[in-house]
Amino acid sequence: MSEITPEVVTHLASLARIALTDDEIARLTGELATIVDSVAKVSEVATPDVVATSHPIPLGTVMRADVPGETLTADQALSGAPERDGDRFRVSAILGEEQ
Amino acid sequence: MTPSTGSELIRLDASELAAKLAAGEVSSVEATQAHLDRIAAIDGDIHAFLHLNAAALETAAAIDTQRAAGETLSPLAGVPIAIKDVLCTLDMPSTAGSRILEGWIPPYDATVVARLRTAGLIPLGKTNMDEFAMGSSTEHSAYGNTHNPWDLTRIPGGSGGGSAAAVSSFEAPLALGSDTGGSIRQPAAVTGSVGMKPTYGGVSRYGAIALASSLDQVGPVTRTVLDAGLLHDVIGGHDPRDSTSIPDAWPSFAEAARAGTRDGAVRGLRIGVVRELSQEGQGFQPGVLQRFHESLALLEQQGAELVDVSAPAFDYAIAAYYLILPAEASSNLAKFDSVRFGLRVTPPGGGTVEQVMAATREAGFGDEVKRRVILGTYALSAGYYDAYYGSAQKVRTLIQDDFARAFAVCDVLATPSAPTTAFKLGSKLDDPLAMYVNDLTTIPANLAGVPGISLPAGLAPEDGLPVGIQFMAPAREDARLYTVGAALEQLLVAQWGGPLLAQAPVLP
After folding, report:
1. At residue B338, what are phi and psi to the nearest 5 degrees?
2. What is the pLDDT of residue B338?
3. Residue B268 β-bridge partners
4. pLDDT, tens digit, 9 for 90 and up, residues B115-149
5. How far is CA B444 from CA B47, B213, B421, B435, in A?
6. For the residues of B440-452, what is the DSSP string, one character each?
7. Whose CA is closest to A38, among B373, B215, B440?
8. Which domains are seen in chain B, by residue range?
9. Nearest to B164, CA basis, from B121, B218, B223
10. Using a CB-CB distance cutoff of 8 angstroms, which residues of chain A are in contact with residue B350?
11. Is the pLDDT of residue B421 over 80?
């Protein structure tokens, strides 16, 4: 059995920056436990002698030629921003009051 | 010569329409208008589209002007196309089916979209999909369900249900999709259309909103194998903006499809039948297996050789996939942070940027996205990484080994494209695992990076709904799939007396 508890889900949600409701935490606890129990079967065949594959096609990073090209203007880059301040993204306070 | 009516124009394959455009028998404006009329008439029932391109007719007129001036145009110039909403478009919102990107207009085109425009294709609009491509039914879209043209109470597959439904209901002759675990091939299977997932790295991912970067691949959604080849020729090839893009040259896939229709095209072709994915008692609907084996028998009559192959690691593919995908997705979706684009939700009374982020992601992500992001965060967390993500990566090696052993004794592999025909809307929505199992036939190709194609194999006798057959080839051997696909398609269409979609119910 997996060790998915409401406390674990609450912690994961805080790491993932999702303000889950209590109802969602309760539902996800059950669903994730079922899913994790099911996918845990990978450990049956993942023996120490098997190497891991992270990328399907063996390929070094393909680099383009190092020449200047067109890039987005500041206006383009900021065009979808929820809030801007001149040429910058505007956000609320980075630090909480306790800091 | 009698001018073609709109209802005739929409039934043409892209290659037929392209020939009429080139011959001056029809204009791109007429063809585009015919498809816009079709969308206006039936998309209230289908809901394949999320946004329409207001400039479609204007773009079509520009192509007609270039043609009239005698300019040399590319083979698909003037042909309309639908674009999955996961792809960035400068002139239309790109939401990936998510509330968090509602109304977002990207500052650049995806490379595949830019290539379409250069080739003179006419974007009709953006198609519906499961949110961030997470799903097999398009029911996880934040913008409502898409309906299967064969039976409006059934799913069109997913995540690319909108593109498959648009093509199979004659709203568009061509569409683009993306395939992370089957999102091009499974919708093609359940709607009676053709879907191709190219070799990983064969088509640029630049501007495709990423789900799982080591699995995602953009590809064609069409009604014929030749059309898929023509579209693949337009969108494929190296892109300096995608560092995982294969730099090698590719053959013409349209030519590979044409080669498949010639006598003797499959003589001597060794087709590996994957034992783990072709037998009763593995969750396959009987009518799916029946049509699958009949298709193989047809190819055998033409001189292909059927080889029994075993791929035991495929039994672990779903488990590995549902660790690797959430892990990569949890990282990719971190960019939706309420700062640079998309939704921002401020909690009552304000809050720090972190609290705004959490409130935004709570409001902007749907249930399935939250489920997978939390699962991925778990799989990557300290203490569990080796047991889950690390083990899943080892399974990936075992699956690649199974493919390598199989391709030592055969040229292509065959499986049904999906275990069942289209299921009822709502029937698997409350059971994530039941939805995940649906991808069992398509996931191995993504994990190994090899190409896979799905084409119609007939209707299941028990429910009269489309069945798809999948072929897979070694990495970089996409051309083989077009050849064997076109060969089988020709044999089946002759047997049916016309394309399978001619048997679909008349809409509206």
Report:
1. 70, 10
2. 95
3. none
4. 999 999 999 999 999 999 999 999 999 999 999 99
5. 30, 16, 20, 17
6. TTTHHHHHHT--E
7. B440
8. 6-313+402-500 (3.90.1300.10)
9. B223
10. 92
11. yes
**Paired residues of B154 in beta bridges:** B424
Tell me which residue of B320, B318, B234, B223 sits closest to B277, measured CA to CA.
B318
Give pLDDT tens digits for B269-295: 999 999 999 988 778 999 999 999 999
ipTM field: 0.93
- The answer to whether the beta carbons of residues B75 and B108 sit under 8 Å apart is no
A46 touches chain B (CB under 8 A): yes
Q: Tell me, what's the pLDDT at A2?
A: 59
CB contact under 8 A, A36 and B359: no
Binned at pLDDT 50, 70 and 90, residue A73 comes out as very high
Yes or no: domain A1-39 corresponds to CATH 1.10.20.60: yes
Which tokens in the block code for residue B195?
A: 């879907």
Question: How far is it, in rounded angstroms, from Cα A3 to Cα B388?
Answer: 13
Report CB contact under 8 Å: A54, B241: no
Q: Do A42 and B394 touch (CB under 8 A)?
A: yes
- Shortest Cα distance, chain A CAs vs residue B366, angstroms: 11
| Test mutation, A28, A42, A84, chain B, max B CBs within 10 A | A42
Segment A61-79 mean pLDDT: 88
* Gyration radius (Cα) of chain A, Å: 22
A25/B contact by beta carbon, under 8 A: no
Residue B315 contacts residue B277 (beta carbons within 8 Å): no
Q: Please tell me which of the candidates B242, B337, B375 has its beta carbon nearest to residue A35.
A: B375
Instruction: For residue B390, list chain A residues with Cβ-Cβ distance below 8 A.
Output: 46, 52
Mean pLDDT (whole number) for B482-491: 98
Pick B339's closest partner by Cβ from A20, A79, A91.
A91
What are the boundaries of each domain within chain A?
1-39
Q: Given a cut of 50, is residue B1 above it in pLDDT?
A: no
Mutate to test the interface with A, among B206, B340, B352, B378 (most CBs of A within 10 A): B378
Is B388 close to A42, i.e. CB distance below 8 A? yes
pLDDT for A1 equals 44
Q: Looking at residues A17-35, what average pLDDT do you find?
A: 97
Contact B374 A39 (CB under 8 A): no
Q: Which of B190, B218, B401 lies closest to B313 in space, CA to CA?
A: B401
Residue B103 CA to chain centroid, in angstroms? 23
A74/B contact by beta carbon, under 8 A: no
Chain B interface test: which of A4, A7, A14, A18 (most B C-beta within 10 Å): A18
Cα–Cα distance, B321 to B246 (Å, whole number): 23
- Quick one: DSSP state of residue B109? -
Residue A98 pLDDT more than 60?
no
CB-count burial class (<10 Å; 0-12, 13-18, 19+) for B253 = buried
Question: Cβ neighbours of residue A67 under 8 Å, at least 6 residues apart?
Answer: none
Q: Could you give the residue numbers annotated as active site of B?
A: 84, 159, 183
